[in-house]
Design a protein that fits this description.
Number of strands of chain A: 19
Number of domains of chain A: 3
Strand content of chain A: 25-35%
CATH topology of the largest domain in chain A: Elongation Factor Tu (Ef-tu), domain 3
Order of helices and strands of chain A: HHEEEEEHEEHEHEHHEHEEEHEEEEEE
Shape of chain B: globular
Number of strands of chain B: 2
Strand content of chain B: under 5%
Strand order of the largest sheet of chain B: 1-2
Radius of gyration of chain B: 21 Å
Radius of gyration of chain A: 23 Å
Helix content of chain A: 10-25%
Helix content of chain B: 55-70%
Oligomer: heterodimer
Largest sheet of chain A: 6 strands, antiparallel
CATH superfamily of the largest domain in chain A: Translation factors
C-alpha cells in the first residue's frame, strides 16, 4: 500500500495550483502565515533550522541543520543551494553536504569562509542556532555508482573533503566491507577536516585506509607521487574533489597509468571567467540553449539581438523593466550608474553589460 | 510641421524658460546623483516596508472578508466593506503598482518580482507592464504616443483635437471613475484602432484575450468563490465585494487623474521630444507631472503616486523613499526654473474636473492640435 505522505503532498500541490481557489491558496501568503507560527514551516520551500555550529578549523565551520518535512534526503557526495537574505537581498550559494545520508532528520553543511564570498561570510558571522535558512533540493552526480565493481579511491583536497566524507558514509551503509583508500590533502594537522570522524570510521572498517598529505610539510603533491602512494591506484574507481588544476593533474596521471576504472570529479563553482581588456564575454542562455558573445560596454540586449535572439524589451533605456532577465551567474555592469554586481540576480538587459562570462535564463 | 513646432515653442516659452543644453546636462547629473544616493542604500529597510504593506493588505482583506461573510448586522457590513476596500487599495496602489514597476526586483525575492506579480483587479499584469511601465513612463504626456493622456476618451488640453464625442465627456469621466479597473484593464487592447480601421477584428480579439482571462478570474473570486464560501450570506457578500471594488475604483481614479491632468502640467509633441537625452526626459517628467500634498497615510494609500514627480523621475525606486528626496528634487527644480506642481488633493482634482468640463467644448483660441 502506498504511504499517505506522497498522496497528501500531491493533493496539496493540486490545491496550490488550482487557479479558481485563488486567493485562498496563495502559497506566498500561506507560507508567511505558517512561518509566523514556526519559521521552519512551509508548503513549498525546504526550510531548515540551525541546531549547532561546529568549528572545524580556523576557516571552516560545520552547520548542523534540521530541515522541515519537505526535505527529500540526499545521496552522499551531493550539494545543495543555501538561500539567505543579506541586507534585504536574497543570495544563494551551493555547498556540499558532509553528513551521513542515512541520518534522515539532520544534515550537516561544512563551509569554508571566503573573504569575498558574501554567503559563506554571512553563515560564519551571522547564522546562529535557532535561525532558519531556505535550502534548494540536493543535486549533483558525484555519487556512488549503481553497482560497486571496483575498489575505491577517494581524494579530497582542502574543503574538497566535504562531499568526500558524505560519500564515505554512504559507502559504509551500502558496503561496510568495501576496500577504500581515502586521501586527504591539506596544509597542516590544524587544517585536517573530520580527523576524529575518520578515525572512528577506520576503527570499525578494516577495508578503509586513510592517508593524509600535509602540504606545509611536504609541499604541494604532484599527482604521480600521490597516486604512487596508493596500492593499485589505476584499478580503483576514483572520486576527486579539490582545486581544478589538482583534479586535472590527477586525471592526466591516471591516463598515464592506463587506469580503466571510472573517474568522478566534483567541480566547485569557479568564479566565471573575466575576459581580458577588450575581449568579448561568452553568454550562455539556459532556455534557448544558445550562446552569444557580448563585447564590453555593449548592452546585453543589443548583443543578444545581433546574435539573432529576441528577448522581450520596451523602453531600452532602463525605465520599464520589460527586459528583466534572471542571471544565474557572472558579473555585469550597469551602464547608467556604473555599478557592478554579480551572482544569481535579476538584471535589465538594456542597461547591463557583461564583465565576465554569464549564464542567463533567456 | 514647422509652423506647428514654432507655435509649440512659443507656448512653452510662455510657460517656462528654455534650458540650454549645458543646463539640461547639469540637471541630469544632479538628478542622477539623487537617484544614486538612494539606490546605493537599498536594503533591509525597504524590504521591511513592502512586507509590512503586504501584511497590512492581507490582514485587512481577511478581516474585511470575514466581517462581510460571517457578520449579520449592518455595522459589520460597513466596517467589512471599508476593510476590504482598504486592502484592495493598499494592494493595488502601494504593493502591486510599485512591485510591478520593478522597484523590488533587486531583492531577488520571487514574491516581489515584477514579472511574476499579479494584482487584485481586472487589469492583466502583462498588459499593464506594457502600456504603463513602457509606454506611459517612456513617452509621458507626448500626445499621440502616451495613450494615458486622457485615456483616448477624454480631451484635457487645447492641443488635443476637438470632436463632438467630447461634448459628453463629463459623462465618460463619471463612467470611467466608477469602472476604473475596467478602463485600465481594457486600455492596452487599443480599441480606438478598431474604430478608426487600423486594427483588424482578429487582432482585436487576440489583444483582448488576457483581459478576458483576468476578468473571469476576478469575477470568479469576488462574485462566485467568496459568496459560495458563506453561501447563507451570499447576497451580502456579493454586494460587499461590489462596493469594495467600487470604492477602490473611485479612489484610484481620483489619485491617478491628479498625476498628469491638473492645471500647470505640460503636454508635448512627438517631434519636440525626438533625440531626447536623459536630462530632457527628466525635464518632461517634471513639468508633465503633479504632486498631491498629504499625510504619510495618504501617501501610502495613493501608492506614493502623490509624489508623482519623484515617481516619474525614478519609477523603479522603492516608492516609500520619494518623500525623503522630495525636498532635494524641489530645490533642483527651483534652481532650473522648472515649476514643481504640488497642491492639496481638492485643488488638484478640482482643476482636473474643470478641465473635463472646459475641454468638452472646442477651444476658443485657435491652438495647434497635434494629436
Amino acid at each position: 500500500m502506498p504511504s499517505a505522505a506522497p498522496l497528501l503532498r500531491r493533493a496539496a500541490d493540486r490545491v496550490l495550483r488550482a487557479s479558481w481557489l485563488h486567493p485562498l491558496n496563495d502559497a506566498d501568503a500561506l507560507n508567511d502565515l505558517l512561518g509566523w507560527v514556526d519559521p521552519r514551516w512551509s508548503l513549498t520551500e525546504i526550510r531548515a533550522e540551525l541546531v549547532r555550529r561546529e568549528p572545524e578549523t580556523d576557516e571552516v565551520c560545520s552547520f548542523w541543520l534540521r530541515p522541515n518535512h519537505l526535505w527529500p534526503g540526499f545521496a552522499g557526495g551531493q550539494h545543495l543551494s543555501v538561500q539567505v537574505e543579506i541586507d534585504g537581498v536574497r543570495q544563494q550559494r551551493c555547498f556540499s553536504l558532509s553528513s551521513d545520508p542515512a541520518e534522515p532528520r539532520l544534515l550537516r553543511l561544512t563551509v569554508k569562509r571566503h573573504d569575498g564570498g558574501r554567503v559563506s561570510r554571512w553563515l560564519h558571522e551571522r547564522l546562529q542556532p535557532g535561525d532558519v535558512v531556505t535550502l534548494g533540493a540536493p543535486s549533483g552526480d558525484f555519487v556512488l555508482p549503481a553497482r560497486l565493481e571496483h575498489p575505491l579511491l577517494l581524494i579530497g583536497a582542502g574543503s574538497g573533503m566535504t562531499p568526500v566524507l558524505s560519500l564515505l558514509y554512504a559507502l559504509r551503509t551500502r558496503a561496510p566491507q568495501a576496500d577504500v583508500v581515502l586521501l586527504q590533502v591539506c596544509r597542516s594537522p590544524a587544517d585536517e577536516l573530520f580527523a576524529g570522524e575518520l578515525q572512528a570510521l577506520a576503527r570499525d572498517w578494516p577495508g578503509l585506509r586513510v592517508q593524509v598529505w600535509h602540504t606545509a610539510q611536504r609541499g604541494r603533491p604532484d599527482a604521480a607521487t600521490l597516486l604512487a602512494g596508493v596500492a593499485d591506484a589505476a584499478a580503483r574507481e576514483t572520486y576527486v574533489c579539490g582545486p581544478a588544476p589538482f583534479m586535472a593533474a590527477i586525471e592526466t596521471q591516471r591516463q598515464a597509468l592506463g587506469a580503466s576504472a571510472p573517474l568522478h570529479l566534483e567541480r566547485f563553482g569557479l568564479p566565471p571567467r573575466a575576459p581580458v581588456d577588450g575581449a568579448a564575454a561568452d553568454v550562455r542562455c539556459t532556455r534557448s540553449e544558445r550562446a552569444f558573445a557580448a563585447a564590453p560596454g555593449t548592452a546585453l540586449l543589443a548583443a543578444a539581438e545581433s546574435a539573432g535572439l529576441k528577448p522581450a524589451y520596451g523602453c531600452r533605456i532602463g525605465i520599464c523593466h520589460t527586459c528583466l532577465c534572471h542571471k544565474r551567474s557572472g558579473s555585469v555592469e550597469n551602464l547608467v550608474s556604473g555599478e557592478r554586481s554579480d551572482g544569481d540576480e535579476w538584471i535589465r538587459l538594456c542597461v547591463s553589460a557583461a564583465r565576465s562570462d554569464l549564464e542567463l535564463d533567456l | 510641421m514647422t509652423t506647428l513646432s514654432k507655435s509649440m515653442e512659443k507656448r512653452m516659452n510662455a510657460a517656462r524658460p528654455r534650458l540650454s543644453r549645458t543646463q539640461v546636462a547639469a540637471l541630469q547629473t544632479e538628478l542622477d546623483a539623487v537617484r544614486d544616493s538612494v539606490m546605493s542604500t537599498l536594503g533591509e529597510r525597504d524590504v521591511a516596508h513592502i512586507r509590512k504593506m503586504i501584511r497590512r493588505a492581507r490582514g485587512s482583506a481577511i478581516a474585511g472578508r470575514a466581517m462581510i461573510g460571517l457578520g449579520l448586522d449592518p455595522f459589520s457590513f460597513v466596517v467589512g466593506v471599508a476593510a476590504l476596500a482598504h486592502a484592495k487599495i493598499v494592494e493595488n496602489m502601494e504593493i502591486g503598482h510599485n512591485v510591478m514597476h520593478g522597484q523590488y526586483d533587486w531583492t531577488n525575492d520571487p514574491a516581489l518580482n515584477s514579472l511574476r506579480y499579479e494584482w487584485d483587479n481586472v487589469c492583466d499584469a502583462g498588459m499593464w507592464r506594457h502600456f504603463h511601465n513602457y509606454e506611459h513612463h517612456t513617452y509621458t504626456n507626448i500626445l499621440g504616443k502616451d495613450r494615458d493622456f486622457g485615456y483616448t476618451i477624454l480631451r484635457l488640453s487645447d492641443e488635443q483635437k476637438w470632436h463632438p464625442f467630447f461634448l459628453f465627456q463629463p459623462l465618460w469621466n463619471a463612467i470611467l471613475a466608477l469602472a476604473f479597473e475596467f478602463g485600465v484593464g481594457g486600455h492596452d487592447i487599443q480599441a480606438e484602432r478598431l474604430l478608426n480601421g487600423t486594427m483588424s477584428w482578429q487582432e482585436f480579439k487576440a489583444r483582448s484575450k488576457p483581459f478576458h482571462r483576468k476578468i473571469r478570474k476576478q469575477l470568479a473570486k469576488d462574485y462566485v468563490l467568496f459568496p459560495l464560501l458563506t453561501f447563507w450570506n451570499a447576497p451580502r457578500v456579493l454586494l460587499g465585494n461590489l462596493l469594495a471594488n467600487l470604492i477602490r475604483n473611485l479612489w484610484s481614479y481620483a489619485i491617478i487623474f491628479c498625476g498628469h491632468f491638473p492645471n500647470g502640467t505640460e503636454v508635448f509633441s512627438e517631434e519636440e521630444t525626438r533625440d531626447e537625452t536623459r536630462g530632457d526626459w527628466y525635464v518632461r517628467q517634471i513639468v508633465g507631472s503633479a504632486n498631491i500634498e498629504g499625510s504619510r497615510t495618504f501617501h501610502i494609500l495613493s501608492g506614493h503616486l502623490s509624489h508623482q514627480i519623484e515617481h516619474h523621475l525614478f519609477p523603479d525606486m522603492p516608492a516609500h523613499r520619494y518623500a525623503e528626496i522630495a525636498s532635494q528634487v524641489r530645490a533642483i527644480c527651483a534652481r532650473y526654473g522648472l515649476a514643481y506642481n504640488t497642491a492639496s488633493f481638492a485643488r488638484q482634482y478640482g482643476t482636473v474636473l474643470a478641465k473635463v468640463f472646459r475641454h468638452a467644448l472646442p477651444s476658443r483660441r485657435a491652438t495647434p492640435a497635434f494629436a
